[in-house]
Amino acid sequence: MEKKFWPDIIYDLKLLLETGGNQDVLIQAGKNSDYKELYAHSLILGCRSQYFRDAFSINSIEKIDGKYIIKRPDISPRSFSNILCYFYGGTVILDEEDGVEVLNLYMASNELELHKLRDHVGDFLKKHQRYFFQKHPIDMIDIIFTHDIFAYLREFCLKTLCAEPHILLGTDKFKSLSEDVLIQLLKREDLFIREISIWDDILVWGFAKNPSLDNDVNKWSRDDIDLMKNTMEKFIPLIQFHDISGEDFFNKVLPYEDLIPKEIKQEALRAHMLPGTRSSMASVPNLTAQVNGPIRRATLPKIDSKIITTQHVLTFSSWIDGFEYKNAKIIPYDFNLLLRGSRDGMDPQTFHRLCDNKGPTLIVIKIRNSKRIVGGYNPLDWDSNGRSKTSPDGFIFSFDELETPNIGRVKPNECSVRCYKEWGASFGNYEGGNDLAMKNKAEWKSKPVSYPDIKIPKKFICSEYEVFQIKKKRNF
Question: Could you tell me which residue ranges the TLDc domain spans (predicted)?
Fold first, then answer.
């Protein structure tokens, strides 16, 4: 009979790492205030890593008084500690790490040719990238945009900032954003922010780069003007001044007119004085090369929500029409808030009072103590007539992160919604339960019946829920 003692071996090796003994490797990890000396065994490192096996065999590592000295100022002590845990115990715990350290560990494992560890860290990073980015946007950007190994994450960062500019814009963190990243952001067509907000933030960024400048522009000398002009010259052509209201242009932009090139200022003034002649800045002489074509900023959709963002609006609109919308300007729907649970109540009676006979609606539910959002789309009216209704256009959805949404469309000839006054929103036929249904107060239940199983919890409490009337815009 064969018996395996792997747990005992792993335990002893981990104990060896913790307690030491006959260690012949000194690792000098990190630099400055983030510096630490770690100890290990060359035999373990060589067995677990081809990188170290080769380094030891060709004597490329310095050796002093019988100890190998590994100097890695580019690898943080935290990352190297995790790598040693991987070497000795075959485990690495990422749930306790922040996004910056996960990025550092990814770089370190790639540098040391630990491909299995690198791929595992990469999968974890991809799964939690949105959460990490929201927590530490500047630190994440600094690493991602300065190391080519993370080139694949740059589009995600820019896309997230475009969809949720409040993560940085309008905050103190924005002042630390690099010029290069800011230019890339302002060139995007999917940046959901008003032009006057961009102007305000660019000014704040400029003042942060030139702290000696007086906040009162009227007190600036010629040198002060030139200093700020040089700071902002790459951003000015990227701002659509003609999309700023006349009042804001007069009160907020014109006081800084010395910063704006003559051609751009004349074009903006013409647009405000003669609205019928508005044109893109690409038509201004000598600007096309700078702007590289006209920039068509997407205006911020009107979405009054504590749960969803403009990026969700794009996703939901795409699901409704079966066509992928990438620009908020062409979304054909308004999302009008009918009910917010925390404001209006979470009981079925309130739902029917506020949402019956309002046409197509979208219900969005935030699950308590979770990042998950679930909900459903009813292309028909809700009512209290005690009937089931069928439409092939109905769907339910669930996602933890915006990047990986799950949608379930109603099955052919199945009930899409049930309308009973004793219940709130109810999706799918009843067979001991519905696909998604409001029960009492904040309690919801789910049982796959008329829709595919998209892994909505069988029973959960919501921390918030909202109902939106989906109304076709007049011009679509």
Answer: 306-471
Q: Are 427 and 302 in contact (CB under 8 A)?
A: no
The reported pTM is 0.60
Other Cβ atoms less than 10 A from the Cβ of 42: the count is 19
SS3 state of residue 409: strand
Q: For 384-433, what is each residue's pLDDT tens digit? A: 998 999 999 999 999 875 557 899 999 998 999 999 988 899 999 988 88
- The contacts of residue 360 (CB under 8 Å, 6+ apart) are 320, 377, 378, 379, 380, 469, 470, 471
Which CATH architecture does the domain made up of 6-139 adopt?
2-Layer Sandwich (3.30)
Q: For residue 389, what are the contacts with CB-CB under 8 A and spacing of at least 6? A: 380, 415, 416, 417, 418, 419
| Cβ neighbours for 230, distance < 8 A, ≥ 6 positions apart | none
Tens digit of each residue's pLDDT (9 = 90 or more) over 78-119: 999 999 999 999 999 998 899 999 999 999 999 999 999 999
- CA-based angle 363:367:372, to the nearest 5? 90
pLDDT at 76 over 80: yes
Give, for 463, the enclosing helix (H) or strand (E). strand 459-472
Residues 6+ apart with CB under 8 A from 58: none
The 10 Å Cβ neighbour count of residue 314 is 23
The pLDDT value given to residue 428: 94
Q: Dihedral (C-alpha) 412, 413, 414, 420: value to the nearest 10 degrees?
A: 140
CB atoms within 10 A of CB 203: 18
